[in-house]
Specification:
16-stranded antiparallel barrel; mainly beta; 20 strands; Porin; two-stranded antiparallel sheet; globular; 2 helices; disordered N terminus; 4% helix
Length: 408
């Protein structure tokens, strides 16, 4: 699997510039080669407001929702949540030098994160340099995560509970893009600070990559001095689909201290594939992502700490009506459906040979109304079921979620 994945990644790697929001999900419009956007363009694919001769442009988005969920008949009742308030600040320092930052406030001010703050220097469409706080391009969601682009209140579980969503680190890298008639090829590759041993030594009591986000020191120093490597290649045909292949890997443990060897170098490696397409006649938008995680877990850890994980999601969004609704001339009503799956522990028990059953499934039917392409009001019904390590009877969760998200 790893060798095949690397061969495919190498075949896709070519070279990028930056761009804006793909409205094919919201309304149909003619495409040309210069307008073909990729998930990796999402960092600049946002609305910004410039005022007069100010040297910076501002933007952002907001998310809030109501939900009533119950698990096995037990509920916390009615809940109102202010999920996110995010600010963008961008500046074109010169024609070929750009700066963009993204600061996110989650759950009020429970978490405040600098998710992106990087300087881009353009030398050639095939060769550009980026440095600063970079969002590691593993899969598609980690880069293209803005709430107003999605018909669902919750982010995909595979992207938040298996992969570390909005995972960013300090580092440097290159990116590039090449157009060829109806095709666009692109790549990006970065060296950054990375994971630490919290991915297997955490309060979850299992292999849990998102625990590494708790390490704030990664923005000033590497945990073990070994760079995390992240690379992505993508290809898109304007009438067919975009396909992306990505890899992220490095040493996660502290293997030495002041020259004293503590342990062997233990790696974490992640592979991901993402696909999105819009069917031409029905305008049905399909978006999917799948990832594989490999962790070198010490033999002293029990089997509840997985050495392999896998999971992903698939979204289908179908426009039902486009037209005037309550004076909003370009309104769109969408029907949407999401399927999610995560296997948190791939393998079998050494003692019995039985399957390790730490699985998660979810289905989310949804209706959304977009009074404008930059604002979405959404109604979701979430139904999920989860098995524990030993495969005991499934724990089931169900309920409704209603909310909005909008750029401003």
């Amino acid at each position: 699997m790893r060798k095949i994945f690397f061969v495919l990644l190498c075949l896709l790697i070519a070279k990028t510039t930056t761009a804006q929001i793909d409205n094919t999900l919201f309304r149909r419009k003619p495409l040309d080669s210069t307008g073909m956007l990729l998930n990796m363009d999402a960092v600049y694919n946002r609305p910004f407001l410039s005022v007069g001769k100010l040297p910076v442009a501002l933007g952002g988005y907001v998310e809030a929702n109501y939900q009533h969920l119950g698990t096995d008949g037990i509920t916390e009742g009615h809940q109102f949540q202010m999920r996110r308030f995010t600010l963008f600040v961008a500046s074109s320092i010169s024609r070929k030098i750009k700066f963009l930052s993204e600061i996110e406030f989650e759950d009020g001010t429970k978490e405040i994160n600098i998710e992106f703050a990087a300087l881009d220097i353009e030398f050639h469409p095939l060769f550009n340099v980026r440095g600063g706080v970079i969002m590691n391009p593993i899969g598609a969601f980690n880069q293209n995560h803005d709430g107003p682009k999605w018909e669902f209140v919750d982010r995909p579980v595979s992207a938040t509970q298996m992969l570390p969503a909005t995972w960013s680190n300090v580092g440097f890298g290159i990116y590039g893009k090449q157009f060829q008639k109806d095709w666009v090829l692109a790549y990006e590759a970065y060296l950054t600070n990375g994971f630490n041993d919290k991915i297997i030594d955490n309060s979850e009591g299992k292999t849990f990559l998102p625990a590494a986000k708790e390490n704030r020191e990664r923005f000033e120093e590497s945990f073990n001095g070994v760079p995390l490597v992240t690379a992505k290649g993508a290809i898109r045909h304007k009438r067919i689909a975009e396909v992306g292949l990505s890899y992220m890997g490095g040493v996660y443990n502290k293997f030495q201290d002041d020259g004293l060897e503590l342990d062997k170098r233990r790696r974490v490696d992640v592979f991901a594939v993402d696909v999105n397409s819009t069917l031409p006649r029905l305008r049905t938008f399909i978006n999917a992502e799948w990832a594989w995680v490999y962790v070198d877990v010490p033999a002293t850890y029990t089997q509840q700490y997985a050495s392999r994980q896998r999971g992903g999601f698939a979204d289908i969004v179908q426009p039902l009506y486009t037209g005037n609704i309550f004076g909003f001339n370009k309104s769109v009503i969408n029907a949407a459906f999401r399927f999610e799956y995560v296997d948190y522990n791939v393998g079998r028990f050494n003692e019995t040979g039985d399957n390790i059953s730490d699985h998660y499934y979810a289905i989310v039917p949804a209706i959304s109304w977009r009074p404008s392409p930059q604002t979405v009001l959404r109604f979701n019904y979430r139904y999920s079921w989860k098995s524990d390590l030993l495969g005991n009877p499934l724990s089931k969760t169900a309920g409704i979620q209603v909310g909005f998200s909008s750029y401003f």
